[in-house]
Each structure stands twice: as C-alpha cells, then as structure tokens.
Automatic annotation (TrEMBL):
Domain of life of the organism encoding this protein: Bacteria
Chain segments annotated as transmembrane: 21-38, 50-73, 85-105, 111-131, 151-170, 176-195, 202-221, 233-253, 279-299
Classification lineage: Bacteria, Bacillati, Actinomycetota, Actinomycetes, Micrococcales
Keyword Transmembrane belongs to the record: yes
Keyword Plastid set for record: no
InterPro entries named among the record's database cross-references: DUF347
Keywords: Membrane, Transmembrane, Transmembrane helix
Protein name as catalogued: Membrane-anchored protein
C-alpha cells in the first residue's frame, strides 16, 4: 500500500493525471520535418494574406490568430493522447502567432532585430533550463505529462519567435536576401543532420534544427511569393498558402489514418509505418510543392520600350516616371499607383482613392522580402509614408485635406529615394 500511495503522489507531482498518457508529439520522421517547414511558410504568408489581401488589418488578424491559438492549445492540452490533426493545427497557429510576436516588436515597437533575437534566445534558454530542472529531460519522445507538454509548447512558441527574428536578422539586417537565406539555412540544417550522424546529442540536434526550419520555411515562402522582378517565382501569398496547406492536409490526414488504424505508440517505440514508406510520402509532398510552383508560376513579364504591354505581357509603368533606381529598387510601379490615388483624392473622390490604394498596399507587401534587405532604413521610411496614406484614407471619416497631405508626403518620399544613389 505505501508503494502505491508513493506512486500516485509521484504522478501528481509530475503532472501526470493518468498512467494511460502516451507521448503527445508525433514520431520524428521525414514527413514530420516536411510538415514543419511547410507550416512555417504558412505562418509567414497566411497572416499577411489576411491582413493585406483580405483587408482585415494587422490588429484584427493578430487578435483572431491569438484567439484561435488559445482555443486549439486548450484542446491540445486537454487531449489524453496524440491527435495528429489537432497537433498540427496548433503548430500552424503557433507559427502564425510566433511570427506576429516578432513583427510586433520589430515593426510596431521598433525593437532592433539584434535585440529581439538575443531576447528570444535568452527566453528559450530559460524555458529549457526550468524544464530540465523540473523534468531532467528535454526529449520530445517523453512529452507524456501535462507539465512536460506545457513546457514543450512554451518552447515551441519561443522557437518560432526566435526563428523569425533570427531569420529576419540574417535576410534583412545583414542583407542576405531570401534566396541566400534559403541556401544558408538549408545548409545549416544539413550540417546539423551530419553532426547528428557523427554523434551529436539527439535532443540538441532536434532543437537546433527546429529553430532553423523557421527561417528556412520563411525564405522558401518568400522565394515562391515574391514577384519575378524581385527574383521570386511570383505565386503570391494566397496561392502559396493554398498549395502548402493542401500538402499539409494530405500528409496530416495520412498521419490521422495511421493513428486511427494502428493506435498511438508508446514513447520510444518504432513508428507503425515503415521509414521507407514515410520517406516516399515526404518525397511525394515535396514533389507536389515543386510541381505546383512550376505549373502555377506566371510567365516572366515582357514590357515594351514605351512601358506598355501587349497580349500576354504584364502591365508596364509610366515611362515619364523618374529614375527607376533607388536604394530599395525600382519605385516606378508604386509611383504610378500613388499618382493615380492622388488624382482621385484631389478630385474629392475619396471612395475611389481608398479602393485604388489597396493595389499599393498589396504591391508593397509583396515586395517587402526583396526590397527591405537592400536598405532597411530606406524601406522603413517608405513604409512609414505608405502607412500615413492608409491611415488618412481609412479614417472615419477621411478628409480630403488629410489624404492629399499624406499622398503628397509619399510622393516626396518616392522622389527623394529615387534621387538617393
């Protein structure tokens, strides 16, 4: 009897409410890493899609995503076993919110990426330290008590925030760009894999790779979403999100079917599905993404010498616009939209101006990943002027004087940047 009482007390101290608990994290397989990378891209693109293309705005999008994450996380923590679709839904939402947290510090509060990266690294170290002192393990094959799972999700959220800050630091502040970022972070993950093969501790290797997949996924997302003029494939945020989400759903559905068919294995056991079959599914998912990117990518724009486009060609820019160069690239396409919005505002047609400025917002958001690394300070100057225009036109109610003043300021900013060599 005393031993039974001791066992019950030990389980209560560790947070284990029932001996029937099994590991709450999927087996670490090839499909696990593919879903993780794709989910990080969703985190990068989907929030932007809702805020800009759908027009919900940053505040509404942030609130909605945090609310959904809270609901999913509560459901995940209350579940007594691994439910693949719920687990991965929570990961996708954590990815989105982790990105939003970093963007809030960087874009809203103006915190340096060097500072935010260091802060999130310290927070993650604290989480791991407390987790280790409480549980004596950081292994994701032992997420089998409520307390361990709470530590796990706290670490996961912090890794996404750290990965976002570190990735932005590399691609923006250090001006590496998204193409170099994809190569660098992909290479680092391969290096971790090689080190693991040579004897690196498995738990350490997992968490390093988990952090690195965040900037890798973001760089791959930028490569797909950015316009061809910026060096991307031009799929856009909405199409990229749909393609990645479709692959995620297919792979998670397979995991759910396997879980329903074979049950959830206890910690440390071999997955029910053979590794070769898992590699085949992961390869099929990767091929599906590549095939969709090739098939759906728009043809390169061909613009005539006068800046006009014929059949099958993209719309050109006004040839009378000033110097096409600036520290952050060609601003003429943006200047054309701004001039059009200004003309409408000066006529007093603020409704038409508000509708047209949406094109500016979308185009500016689509070009961020390519333009910002070229000169972050100049990008922020332009971004601030654009925000001023959006605020003036979307005021309740907007005034002609305020809108024209904000637009004139934006035109001046464009002109100053085009003269800055």
């Amino acid at each position: 009897m005393p031993s039974t009482v001791t066992s019950v007390l030990d389980r209560r101290r560790s947070g284990l409410s029932s001996p029937s608990w099994l590991n709450k994290v999927p087996a670490i397989t090839a499909t696990f890493w593919l879903i993780k990378i794709l989910s990080t891209t969703i985190g990068e693109t989907f929030a932007d899609y809702l805020a800009v293309q759908v027009g919900l705005g940053t505040a509404v999008t942030d609130g909605a995503m945090m609310t959904l994450l809270a609901i999913a996380l509560v459901a995940q923590l209350r579940a007594r076993r691994l439910i693949p679709w719920l687990y991965w839904l929570t990961v996708v939402l954590v990815s989105i919110v982790g990105t939003q947290i970093t963007d809030f510090f960087t874009d809203t509060l103006g915190v340096s990426l060097y500072v935010s990266t260091a802060v999130f690294a310290v927070v993650l170290a604290v989480v791991f330290t407390v987790w280790w002192r409480q549980e004596r393990t950081l292994a994701i094959t032992a997420i089998d008590t409520p307390r361990r799972e709470r530590y796990y999700w706290g670490a996961i959220l912090t890794t996404f925030a750290l990965g976002t800050a570190g990735g932005d630091l590399a691609t923006e502040a250090l001006s590496l760009g998204f193409r170099n970022g994809a190569l660098i972070f992909g290479g680092l993950i391969l290096a971790v894999w090689g080190a693991r093969r040579l004897g690196l501790n498995g738990v350490l290797a997992f968490w390093i790779a988990y952090v690195l997949t965040r900037p890798l996924g973001a760089s791959l997302g930028d490569l797909l979403t950015q316009d061809r003029s910026f060096g991307g494939l031009g799929l856009g945020a909405s199409l990229t999100s749909l393609v990645f989400l479709a692959v995620i759903v297919a792979l998670v559905a397979r995991e759910q079917v396997n879980a329903n068919r074979h049950g959830i294995r206890a910690k440390g056991e071999t997955p029910a599905v053979s590794p070769r079959r898992d590699y085949a599914w992961a390869a099929a998912g990767a091929i599906a993404v590549i095939a969709a990117a090739v098939a759906l990518a728009p043809a390169p724009a061909v613009v005539g010498p006068t800046g006009t486009a014929g059949k099958g060609k993209s719309a050109g820019v006004n040839p009378l616009e000033a110097d096409p160069t600036s520290p952050i690239g060609d601003l003429r396409p943006f200047a054309v939209i701004v001039d059009d919005v200004t003309a409408k505002a000066k006529k007093g047609d603020l409704a038409a101006a508000t509708t047209r400025v949406k094109d500016l917002e979308v185009a500016w958001d689509n070009g961020e990943a390519a333009m910002k690394p070229a000169s972050p300070d100049d990008w922020h100057t332009m971004d601030s002027s654009i925000d001023g225009v959006l605020t003036a036109l979307r005021a309740t109610p907007p005034t002609k004087a305020a809108c024209v003043s904000a637009l004139t300021n934006l035109q001046s900013t464009i002109g100053a940047l085009e003269k800055k060599q």
